[in-house]
Amino acid sequence: MPSYSSDPYILFACGIEKLIAEDFKKKVKQLVSNVDIDLISYICSRKQDWYLAQLKVQSNEDAIKLMVNMRGLKIGNSNLGLTFYWPVEMQHCGRLRLNNLVEKQRRQLHIDSEGCFYDIAIENKKKFAQQKIARKNFRPILTNVIISNIPADMHQIELFHLVNQGGTVSSLKIIENNKACVTYIGPYDAIIAMLCLHKFEILNNQPISIKFEDFKQTSHLMDEELRVRVQNLLESMQYEDASRPIKPESGVNNLTNGYGQPQARIKNKNSLPNCPKLAWQIQNSRSDYQIQKENIDMDVDRLDEDQDLRIKRDQNVDKESSPFSYDEDQSGRSTPQFMNKDIDNNREMHRFQSIVRKEYNLPMKTIFLILQTKLQQRLSDDGIEVSLTLPTISDSSSGKVIVETTAENQKYFSNALQDLINVIDHGDHLSNRIRRYLAVNDQVRDVINLKLQDGNVNAGIAYIDQSISVIAIDSDIHNKVIAILHQAFVTDSIKITGNNLYRKENMEMFLFVIKDSIPKSSSVLLEAKLDSKSSSFIMTVTGPQELVSKAIQVIKDKHQDYKVITASLKNIPVLKTEYIRMYRLNDIVLLEKKYNCCIEVEAVKESETFTPQLSKQITFKCCQFIKNEINRQLQKIIDGIIIEKEGSISIHSRIGRLCHYNKSKSKFDRWQKDYKCLVATINHQDLRRPTDKFDSAAINFNIPSTTKGSNLTRLKRMVGETVSSAKTAAKPFISRRSQDEMVFGKVVVKLIKGTIEKEGAKCDVIVNSMKLLLYREGNIAAALYKAGGTAYESECTSKLCRLSVNGIGCTSGRYFGCKSVYHLPFLSSDQTLGWLSHRVKDCLTQAEQQGMHSIAIPAIGTGGIGFKANDVAKEMIQIVMNFAQQNPNNLRNIHFIIFPSSTKSYYAFQQQLADSCLDSHTHQDMVEIFTKSANNTESSHQSDCQLLFKAQCDITDIPVDIQVYHGTTCDIRADAIIDMTALCSKHTCVDNHVDIAEFTDVNHTLQTLKRQRYSSHRVYHVCPYGCLAGFISLLDDINAHDEKSVTIPLLDIEINAENIDCLIELIQNFITTHHKEVHVLHCFNFVIGYQNRSTEIATWMQHKITSQVLQLPWIVVQPVPVENFGMDVYYIASDKTAIANMKSSMMNDSNTWTRYDITEQDYFNTISPMQWYQLALKIWSEYNTIIIQHKKQKKVSLFGYEIDIMNTVLQLSKTYIEKKAYQEVQQFAAAAQRNLDNRDIAIPNNWEFKRKEDIKAGYYGLIDVKNRQEIEQIKKLPGLGGLKIKKVQRIQNWNLYRRYQIMKAEVSHAVGKYKPQAQVERKLFHGTDSSKLDAICKQGFDRDYSGTAAGSALGTGTYFAVNAKLSQNYGNALLLARVLTGIFTHSSVSGRPNLSTIRGSRSERVHSVVDNASNPSIFVVSNDNSAYPEYILHI
Fold this sequence. Notes:
By secondary structure, this protein is of the alpha+beta class. It is built from 46 helices and 59 strands. Helix 22 runs antiparallel to helix 23. The radius of gyration is 51 Å and the shape is elongated.
């Protein structure tokens, strides 16, 4: 066996086909780089294309690694799995220990493939023999066989591959050139091998022979005659095809003997000669002898007393249980018939019968010494055959030793054992480090023990009971061994001091490098102790002297490389560091794990201005030797980040509005998360990320300073409340949206063709016409019964049994998808229109009081009752108008449901809607137009404008001026005014004007140019399409008409710095072309109504003139007082595709121009052409909205962004319109607000869905929550009170969520107005019965069920608790809900709604009531939209 000090580790691979030899080498090199491979050809005639390989590696770990990963591996096209063996010289116990390590790792890796056989014919014989012979009937005694006629050139490992196929080999030794002694672990393996391998031809016509080494000692197991008979049996089985599995003989049945083991039963005596004698002997060996077990005490004084214990033969053999016939021999003993033929020597049989089995409980250290001193082999050498069964050496204090031999030999064994009882078994004379070294290095222990065996030293080193012991038979030998160990192994230490000592992970890496840098590293023990207080560490090496010296030198050479240093990458753009912090942290974590380092990406400080020029650094702490690699990896991450800049765009452009006005934070978060693209903007030199910019999900509209009071709040106030100037109006403002839809103040009325049971599902309340106690009577009642079924009828029977003829019954609407059904006993009344009118009024009032938002009313009475459709329609519309005058807070939508076949009723309601609109306004209500007086002085005009910037060029006699004003175009005196709001006929028909800037037809400007002369100036009306492209042509035309100055409005809403640079170049080209003319256009006034937009353009012009070399000499006469470069947008991502996707999403979701028509004919019928262009330019300048008059169609169209149009309409209503304009304001604002409500309610970030388009009206989902962070947030709620959550389900109901968010906005407004410190929203618990969960999840909470569980002590409404345990008292299901508790008060009523109002308001009700105003535990809300069921908690 190779020595541990110098020889490399060796293992062998077998079954390598020559065609895959090179692939085999590559695979080995992949696993272990430092390996020597020698290929050796097989000698067998049938395996000329096979190799075996000798692999030399440098460590035990590498050898095990190869064995684990390559044993059984099929390489390339080979069908053979590789077989691996340890060296033949290795002790069997060492081989077993390594194999156990290999098997353990293979099980962990789920590898179960095995290597190839030497020969398949041998395997088939082996399987057949194993069917006939049972292993359990043999004692585990090492058995030697001699194999002869072995080819001289045959390698030991090839021979080992062959003999190991027959059975498990303990050792193999070549005793002569053509002979080998093979030791099998037991007689069973030896017999199987003899049957399979005898006469096997390694070389053609040169069969090998195999026999027991000592025939006398094994004659009871196998004799020559029996072996020949077995061989004859195999040949008689027609074993023609070696590859074909052998079937059992037809004459043999597998039965069970008395010991539960399979045995061969002979059908008749005539078949006996064909049955192997060996099979009978083995199967019935335990029938002949009864083994008696007796524990032998460890006390040496009792050993002699127990030596006479033996197993005696049972004289009464159970003859009936044996399948064989018996004869009586001379001694009167029954013997099988064919055994009389085989056994003719009674002495040998007597010897076999007198074997005695004893059991000894011995100390584990004595057992170790038995193994170490090879007691069994020594006795055998002295002619004393003893079979020992020894336990595995373990931490147990003792173990059982089984001895099987003759009585006489038992005495010899007892004497030999007595010398091993009183052993010297301590290791106190060894240093602690040497003991630790020997404890962890079992291979070194094996080598030492082997050398002690070779030197016949009766001692050894054992790891027993978690400690190292030197065990010897006497103190002299013990001291010798101690001296040898002290001489062989030494301990040396080195102390290193200084700053930046190793981190724990780096220390481990350093120890690994040291081991990897010295040969036989597994033969040394490295220990390190770190002392942070003294800034030092001590490293100790224990092992052989030579290796310890090398290890100490390696430590001295390499320790500096493993000290912790701090390094950094500086001057990294802050955009990249922020991107890394948001989207590349996983890469940073992977680097930290890979290199055992600590990396920190510097963040922006609160005190710093977040600009693109700001730079940050990445700092990392690591070992010196990996500094460059970490630096390279970080630089690779930084270089892989792309930054694209979209510079100097206006904050009022499409993208600018998206980033600052019309987008919520949640949308940007979702896009950035999806595309891993960070979007950053800079405005007023303050770089802000979307995550910083959006403090709330509400839309932040930016309204110019020129429209004081024109904001969303004012718009809502104008729409939602009566304007002071119109308080005398007797009727609410009425506007008609379509033939089927009308707005009465706050109330929207719709005509819908359909059935009440289907269309009613879209509302909160359905109105039913029925007969008392007959709930199916009538067309409407029958339709509802058919849809609701018997459950609906049962509820009607229960709740409507006491309904009076003038009352209104109420049942649940869950059968139809609504909240409630109001029942009118119309068929039991006098059936007059007056009765119906009163009851419908009562329905509207009750719905308003109960917080309902919509109601569906059928055309009651127009069917079988026979009411005229016109009369019913007129009465119903009048009821709605009267109800709208009450300014309801809740009920805003009233739907009249007309049966599809009732055409007359439908037309009647349509006509009444139209008539109500006409009747509500007289000619005196129409609008009177107020326009500016033409006599206003120019000085007053000029005083309203502010000069922001002026640049001058002295190339001509008269200086050329470029001036930028904040104001309106009409306020600047000039010879010419450009009106670019005059859309041509082609573009007037376009609703969405998003491509004005991209329009490049230079001829379009002159083609659409119309000049209009006024007293002091000329107006040049042009289509805005192509203004930028045709600007130079327009200047030429203005100059051709001898104009000296021109006022230029904003040419395009998307104008940016690049466009301004182009305009200045065009102006320079114009001046260069015309400067020699006598009369030339020399004053260019740019006038913009937006304060910050005008500052943007002035800044861009100043930057262009001052920072670039221009072809003309310009002087800045008046600089911009406040610089505003607009906005820069930065896109940061790891690839350009992500940026492209981000830009696409932003453009698709950004606002586009829309069109709104004012259809009233008298709006602008008295305005003059001059007043009109002044009005159009004013609206364009201040609101970026184009207004077009269509005289033939008698309407006015507004083109612009929706919010700009809203501001324009509001300004018109303030300046030009008195009463009539409010109708248009209400109509457009309601539509705009509805669009905002539908569009800008963000989808919750934690919702799970496949496509965004799926989240729409009607969307519902119940999702099992898997996100651990989301679950942990719920568990942290204080109200849970220690309850354990088994499962959480998220309720995703868009309809409920949208209503809740709309209600939340209203509650937030009220809280901000009356009690700003109040908490708007809380997360509370609601207990209910599990049968009601589905209805709550789909339809929301229903206060109609108030009191059904435990009464309504705090008034009717939906009850919520702060503590979950309290909610559990009201049902077996638990919900976690968002609740708008808002402004609350203590409940003062029971069993009915609480109508308390907010202190300081006239009529606004409190949002909730509580049980205790100072410390509430229960909240009750009376509006179903004030609570959203968010989670189902399974406790």
